[in-house]
Fold this sequence. Notes:
The termini are far apart. The protein is built from two helices and no strands. The protein has a domain of about 40 residues. By secondary structure, it is mainly α.
Amino acid sequence: MLPWTTKRVYLNLIEDEGEERIRTAFDPETYSRLVALKDKYDPTNMFCLNQNIKPSRGLAQPVS
């Protein structure tokens, strides 16, 4: 079956497994678009719970 799999994961099945695991849920183009949206609408990473996509800028820690 391995040749027919996409090697991607469902976000609902991911817990706190790290950023690389979240990347596997998306193809590279989609992930890049999501990062661009995060940069535009949440550059401080305020909404960082669950399966977080971090902004590309190295900004301050999320607001608690």
